[in-house]
Specification:
Blueprint lengths: L15 H22 L1 E3 L9 E5 L6 H6 L6 E6 L8 H8 L2 E3 L6 H12 L3 E4 L17 H9 L3 E7 L1 H4 L12 E9 L1 H6 L2 H11 L36 E4 L2 E4 L5 E4 L5 E2 L8 H17 L4 E4 L2 E5 L6 E3 L3 E4 L3 E6 L2 E6 L3 E7 L3 E6 L2 E6 L7 H17 L5
Parallel strand pairs: 1-7, 2-5, 2-6, 3-4, 3-5
Antiparallel strand pairs: 6-7, 8-9, 9-10, 10-11, 12-15, 13-14, 13-20, 15-16, 16-17, 18-19, 19-20
């Protein structure tokens, strides 16, 4: 039997209920973020329509913060990890995020972006693909510029300021400061048509640059340095790895006892081996850790959980409580023995949350979750750095 008249199923991505959901949630979220983060969203003044909205990425709450500047629903690209949560069916029903595997090209995600745009919806993208851990900008590819040009709709560039100072990714508590979000630039479809992808990409990188450490704003907390070792994993004084220990507003290296404080203005005082900001130290260690591993050192952490992620399903627990990486393999070990994942077989490694990383191997997504002070980013740095060295040795460096 065919569908009865008047019972035609709505297969659109953009649905009327999303307008209602955003209208109901917007004042609640506005009050919550003002109270919790001292956050203010500047109204964009844009009318409902198809847009590509892009933003820098500072906190977990960025999609909600950004949405407060618009009177219409924004359909965000979301990590596949969200779709493994028990509440994911409700999330999909209420706000319909567009799923994408982090650090991987996802043809289905791109098709869904075009679908939302065609239906007159606004798509939200964080081109860095990951929220900042150092306060600086993550690397981006020119894919976002090519997407902006091909969609043929206005490109809205949005900035979130103060998110890193208020809620640093490596931290454990909210700091008292202030944060705000606003549209920084709008490029019309006609203007995009006249620009090359390279020109668009340069504009995007410039306009998404936000550095809270240079703002002069104070972010107050008696525990402001705690868990900084999630970002700073290698000592620039003694070159020791995983030796940083933090407590309250101070931190030190347990190997050489060099000590510093993390100030309310997001500075290191006194400078640690000459580094006065987390970003400067972070950029140094990402190169140095690769040299160590390339020269034969093995980096390891105990007390991890190892599991397999399956989209739209709960994670499957796997054996292993120790993770290691050398210049050839990622190794998971435990009472049952060792499992080797050759690095050349891994598509990518990406950090999630504060203390997790995913890696993609043979069409499967595996996740390593560490303890409270686990530093996930060093595994990303090692993998990416070794891959770059391999390309350079083949003469394929850009």
């Amino acid at each position: 039997m065919g569908l009865q008249k008047g019972k035609v199923k709505n297969t659109n991505w953009v649905k009327r209920r999303h307008v209602f959901v955003f209208a109901v949630l917007r004042p609640i979220m506005r009050f919550y973020f003002k109270l919790r983060y001292r956050y203010k969203a500047m109204r964009s003044g844009l009318k409902k329509g198809a847009y590509l909205i892009i933003s820098n990425h500072q906190t977990t709450m960025d999609p909600f913060m950004l949405s407060l500047s618009f009177k219409f629903p924004v359909y965000f690209i979301a990590s596949d990890d969200i779709f493994n949560l028990k509440v994911s069916p409700l999330i999909r029903y209420l706000v319909a995020p567009i799923p994408k595997s982090k650090s991987l090209r996802d043809v289905a995600a791109v098709k869904n972006i075009f679908r939302v745009i065609k239906e007159g919806g606004a798509v939200g993208v964080f081109p860095e693909g990951n929220r900042t851990i150092s306060g600086g900008q993550w690397e981006m590819t020119d894919a976002i510029a090519k997407l902006a040009k091909s969609l043929k709709v206005p490109l809205v560039i949005y900035n979130i300021n103060g998110g890193y100072g208020t809620d640093p990714r490596w931290g454990h508590s909210i700091r008292k400061g202030c944060s705000y979000g606003k549209v920084r630039k709008i490029i019309t479809a006609d203007e995009l048509k006249e620009l090359s992808s390279e020109e668009i990409f340069n504009i995007i990188k410039d306009e998404l640059t936000v550095d809270d450490t240079l703002s002069g704003v104070k972010f107050r907390s008696g525990k402001r340095a705690e868990y900084i070792e999630r970002a700073l994993y290698m000592c620039p004084v003694c070159n020791g790895v995983s030796g940083i220990i933090s407590k309250k507003y101070k931190f030190r290296c347990k190997f050489c006892n060099t000590e510093s404080s993390y100030t309310e203005k997001l500075a290191l005082s006194p400078p640690f081996a000459g580094y006065g900001r987390v970003l400067e130290w972070f950029e140094w260690e990402r190169n140095e850790i690769v040299k160590k591993v390339y020269d034969g050192e093995v980096i390891s952490d105990d007390g991890i959980l190892f599991r397999e992620s399956v989209k739209f399903r709960n994670k499957k627990m796997l054996a292993g409580d120790r993770v290691s990486i050398d210049k050839n393999n990622l190794i998971i070990s435990g009472e049952a023995g060792k499992t080797l994942f050759p690095l050349h077989e891994i598509d990518s490694i990406t950090m999630l949350g504060k203390k997790k990383f995913n890696f993609y191997h043979n069409d499967k997504i595996y996740q390593v979750k560490g303890g409270k002070r686990f530093c996930a980013i060093k595994y990303v740095h090692i993998f990416d750095g070794l891959r770059l060295l391999e390309k350079c040795e083949k003469g394929e460096c850009e």
